[in-house]
Structure formats: C-alpha cells, structure tokens
Design a protein that fits this description.
By secondary structure, the protein is α/β, with parallel strands linked by helices. It contains 12 helices and 21 strands. The structure holds pyridoxal-5'-phosphate (PLP) and lysine (LYS). Lysine (LYS) binds at residues 96, 198, 240-241, 360, 364, 421. It comes from Streptomyces xanthii.
C-alpha cells in the first residue's frame, strides 16, 4: 500500500524516512472536497464548519474525540446509488460499515435496503423500523438462534455461505413452517487488488463456496432439493476498498456462467444476482473513486451482455455498498495533547483517541490525511505522525501527513473519511470510552450514538 516518494523538504528533516507521504499540499489550509464530507468548509475566521456549524463549537458541545457525520451527504450518497441503479435493481447498504437506528431510518426514507451480518445488526435494523423483507442476512457462521430470529422476522433473503448452512437454514425454516428466500455466496476466484485482509474472492479464505471444482454447482443442487428454502440467486463479494472495475466484471461474468449451468442442468433460471459491495473511496487526494452511475452502467452492461450470450433472462441485480455510502460522510475530531518533534524523523502529534476509534491504520496500514481545523495557520509544513493515547507503538491514526509546524496542544485536528469501519470497529482497549457519533445537518447537530461513560464500562464488570 505504501507509495513512498520524497516530499519537498518539510522542516527539521534532511533525510526523510520511508512512508506513504507524497509532497506536502501547496496549501495546508485547503480542504480537498474529495476526502471531506460535502458540507465541510473553511470559514472566514480560519476555522472549519460542517453542516453550517463551526467545529470548535461542536467540540465544545460534544467533546473530543467524536465522529461528526454530515447527514445531507449521507442522504445524497444514498440517493445517488438508488438513482444510478434504478427501479430494476436493489441497493443494500452494508450495515457493518456503520449502523445506528438513525442511519436505518435515513436508509428507509431514502429507499435503500439493508445488509446485516449479525443478530445485533438485525435487532438494530428491526427496532428502527426497517421492513424485514428489505433486509439481507449475511455471515459465514450465523448461529441457529440468529437464523431462527431472521426467519421468524421474515427477512427478504439469507445469504448462505457453506454446505452446512444450506441444510441448517432449510431445517430451521421448515421447522417454523416457512420457506426462506436464499442466495448462495460463491467465491469466483478473483484476486481483488486490495489489502489481503479485505479481499474475499480468492480461494484461500473463509467466505463463500468456490465455483472451482464444481462446488458451487453442487451447493445449488443440494439447495434446490430442500423444502424449507427457495433459491432466488447467486451472491458474490470480491473484497473491499477496490477501485478497479475489472474484478467486478470477471465476477459478474462467472456468476452469469453459473446461472447458465444451473439453467442447463435444472431447467431453472434464477431471478437474482448480487455483486456485493467493495467500491473504494478517497482516503487521500491520491485516490480516485468511481461514481455510482459508472458502477451501475459497467455492471449492467456486463450482466446484460453475458446473459444475452448465454440466452438467459437478465436477472435483477443487487449491490451492497457500505464504505462508499458512509465512509466519506464523517470525520473524527481530536484534540491535540502533546507534540513531540523527533529531529531528522518526524513530529509525533498525540491525540485524545487512537486505535480504539480507528483500528484501520494498525490493521490494514490504511492511509488517512489530517487537517488543523480550529484555526488557520501559515506555518511551514511539518511531517507528522498522528498517534493515539494507547499503550501500543502501533497506535497510529495517520501514519504520514503534513500539519502546520506550529501545531500545538489544544488545537483541534480532524481526520476525514472515517465514516466507515471506524465507529463500527471501535474498541474499549485500555478502557477507552467509545466516542459519540453526532449527525450534523442544516445548522443542527444531534447525537445519534452517545459517548460511552465509565458507568457503561462498570455495568459490564460483574466481579
Ligand atoms: C458480503 C458483503 N457485502 C458488502 C460489504 C460491504 O463492503 P464495502 O463497505 O467495502 O462496500 C462487505 C464487506 O466487505 C461484505 O462482506
Ligand atoms: N473492515 C474493513 C473492510 C471489511 C469489510 C467487511 N467485509 C475495512 O475497514 O476496510
């Protein structure tokens, strides 16, 4: 992932260490619209606002660290995906990226469906009023209790991930007197160009049933024989944070190939295919994400073409974007606690959060950028590493970035593009209190997930 390049001489460094950084941006006060949520602006007095509210005011009211989510941006992204795919396709927001009851209500209002992958996500979705038939239930090891709950609730589909699960779901549904609509998740054998831990369609990983060796065809054979389930389609998800459409195109072609095999063997044309999520977003100015309409067009064309070639009716397509909807809509706001310049290396800027609110840098060597948001500064750029307050040298939020060299304790700094897989993967490491998520829209801010308290921590401790 590293794209090291020699930056144009920040201060206190003649020889710079290896890293992700490129040259410092021409203007450290500028906020690149690619990585910041839609309504984020530099204000006239030098601060930054979101949804029309100064972040300094937000920090005063809600404290730091905190995630601020631009609701207008979230809704606009939902609408863009919904409109790009149109009425003949379905968009399922992947709740694992970030889920709360407010988010479920926005999704419902914007006409999106929801992909959940645990009993907890299912409960959140149902409790916020998402109709069960608009929910897809995923996971490679769903418990019997979770499956029972999903079937009883009447979820629109369960995505089956193994031979055991085909039988398990069929038996549970049958015992409840139901016929559950299911898809089978297949691994298409594509090497997605992303971090190893978030690629999911090559052979040697835990998800899905391989197309290779006729395993997926065998899974279909078994599913079609069972009474408690109705096989409605085939599912593929090749990985996450992907920019290149080639992997999706190969996946679409192979999934349609399986539909043709199923038609030839069983005389059945399955009506749906799901091509998963995984579309990348801009974490830094170097990333160039695809727009939903480009993705819809590319996928629609390839599926139509392959179906025509195989004389199949074109199935209804669904997709499951998570990161691409919520990722860019939020930033994490931190207060700087200490600043430690290491001569000849870089400046370590310690903030009041860290790997407990953003594990992605430690886990995937993810790249982020950072900006000073409580004031404007014309100081020269300094190469910084933004680190947290945890007892771990890998507790890094932003590995290599530039901040004005006068960054000081008490300053507010913000890391953009933290809407996805940050709060949802947050932990209580070192008994950190997980930060709140505050939705901001049209001059109003409201907490949608509150900050944890020490009472929350003690409540779980029964010793
Ligand atoms: C089955 C499935 N669908 C959708 C997603 C959402 O992925 P992303 O947030 O990258 O769009 C994931 C996560 O990678 C997934 O496992
Ligand atoms: N959590 C990962 C992606 C995995 C997506 C879920 N299958 C990330 O932060 O990039």
């Amino acid at each position: 992932m590293s794209r090291s390049a020699h930056p144009a001489g920040p201060r206190h460094a003649d020889v710079l260490p290896e890293g992700h950084y490129t040259a410092p941006p021409a203007d450290l006060n500028a906020l690149d619209a690619k990585v910041w949520a839609r309504t984020v602006r530099r204000t006239e007095d030098g601060g930054v606002s979101v949804g029309g509210i100064e972040v300094a005011r937000l920090a005063e009211e809600f404290g730091t660290p905190a995630y601020f989510l631009d609701e207008a941006d979230f809704r606009a992204r939902c609408a863009a995906w919904r409109d790009a795919f149109g009425p003949d396709a379905d968009v399922f927001y992947a709740g694992k990226a970030f889920l709360s009851r407010a988010v479920v209500r926005w999704l419902h209002e914007e006409g999106l469906n929801l992909d959940v992958c645990s009993g907890g996500e299912l409960t959140t979705a149902l409790s916020a009023g998402m109709p069960a038939d608009r929910i897809a239930f995923h996971g490679n090891n769903k418990s019997e209790a979770e499956i029972t709950r999903a079937v009883e609730a009447g979820v629109g589909r369960i995505v089956l991930d193994s031979f055991q699960e085909i039988v398990r779901v069929a038996h549970i549904a049958e015992s409840l007197g139901r016929v559950q609509r299911v898809q089978i998740r297949v691994t298409v054998g594509v090497e997605a160009h992303t971090h190893e831990f978030i690629a999911t369609a090559h052979e040697d990983q835990k998800f899905g049933i391989a197309l290779a060796g006729g395993q997926a065809a065998e899974a279909v054979r078994r599913a079609l024989k069972l009474d408690g389930i109705e096989l409605i389609g085939i599912h593929s998800h090749i990985g996450s944070q992907i920019f290149d459409m080639a992997g999706f195109e190969v996946a679409a072609r192979r999934v349609v190939g399986l539909l043709a095999e199923i038609r030839d063997e069983h005389g059945v044309e399955l009506p749906e295919i799901d091509l998963g999520g995984g579309l990348g977003i801009a974490y830094t100015s170097d990333d160039d994400p695809r727009e939903p309409h480009e993705i819809a067009k590319a996928l629609g064309e390839i599926v139509t073409r392959e179906c025509e070639a195989a004389a199949l009716r074109t199935p209804r397509i669904s997709v499951e974007p998570g990161r691409a909807i919520v990722g860019p809509t939020a930033f994490t706001l931190y207060t700087v606690g200490t600043v430690k310049p290491l001569e000849g290396l870089r400046t370590y800027v310690s903030v009041d959060g860290g790997m407990s609110d953003n594990i992605r840098t430690a886990l995937y060597d993810a790249e982020y950028t950072v900006a000073l948001v409580s004031r404007r500064s014309d100081a020269e750029p300094a190469l910084v590493r933004v680190v947290g307050k945890h007892c771990e040298s890998g507790d890094i939020v932003v590995k290599d970035a530039f901040l004005p060299a006068d960054v000081a304790p008490g300053d507010l700094i913000a890391v953009p593009a933290t809407g996805a897989y940050c709060r949802s993967m947050a932990s209580n490491y070192n008994h950190a209190l997980r930060p709140p998520v505050v939705a901001v829209r049209d001059g109003e801010a409201r907490v949608i997930v509150r900050r944890e308290t020490e009472e929350d921590l003690l409540r779980l401790d029964v010793g």
